[in-house]
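Example record

The entry below shows one chain as it appears in the dataset: sequence first, then structure tokens.
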Amino acid sequence: MERPVTPARPHHKLTEDGRRVREVLSYSRRGSRFTPRQAEAWAAHQERWVIPDEAVDRPGFSLEQWFGRRAPLVVEIGSGVGEATAPLAAARPAHDVLAFEVWRPGVADTLWKLAEAGADNVRLCGVDAVWSMEHLLGEGDVEELWTFFPDPWRKTRHHKRRLVSPEFARLAASRLRPGAVWRLATDWADYAEQMLEVLDAEPLLEGGVVERWSERPVTRFERKGVEAGRTITDLCYRRR
């Protein structure tokens, strides 16, 4: 039996006449220039801890091969510079943490933070997280999902690019095992309202606004939000 063809990843979709399809994504790719410290961290740890984009296209791709074991899986979408990723992963050595981040300098920053924290249980991936959740993960594969301070896409015309949508909530809920949790945080009130509306409407999820998760480190995004006078909203939903 032939292996099904995996659908093209974002940025790889073309029309029949070869033109690139314009896609609505929840992120934009920024510059990729490294500082000396980032370059050093990349050279030292990239081969072990970063999953190359092209690896997901190879037949038989398996996360277990990249982690070297089978363990409960935590997924973080938008790990930034690893301020939360490194300490949270270091505190969970029995879990594997798959962190999605498209900004390569942020990945490099994360690498040295992981090394300092002694967190060898993280693998970073720069492939679109929505596509990866759909095509690389199966139903019930995820023990915990973290979405801390996703891009708010503040302009109304850009709200369609926000990650937390009914379609993504349906997908994410299907990847969570029964009883698993999805933790979110944002410093934008209208995005918090949207998250509540979307997640409350997803029949596989139950939860809402909660007290700040004490284990979540204060990141620069949170500090900037507080300094600007914005309220930080934490949400937690559990898969029914």
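Notes for this example: The CA atoms of residues 97 and 122 lie 5 Å apart. The helical segments are 36-49, 63-67, 85-90, 104-117, 129-135, 166-175, 189-200, 220-227.
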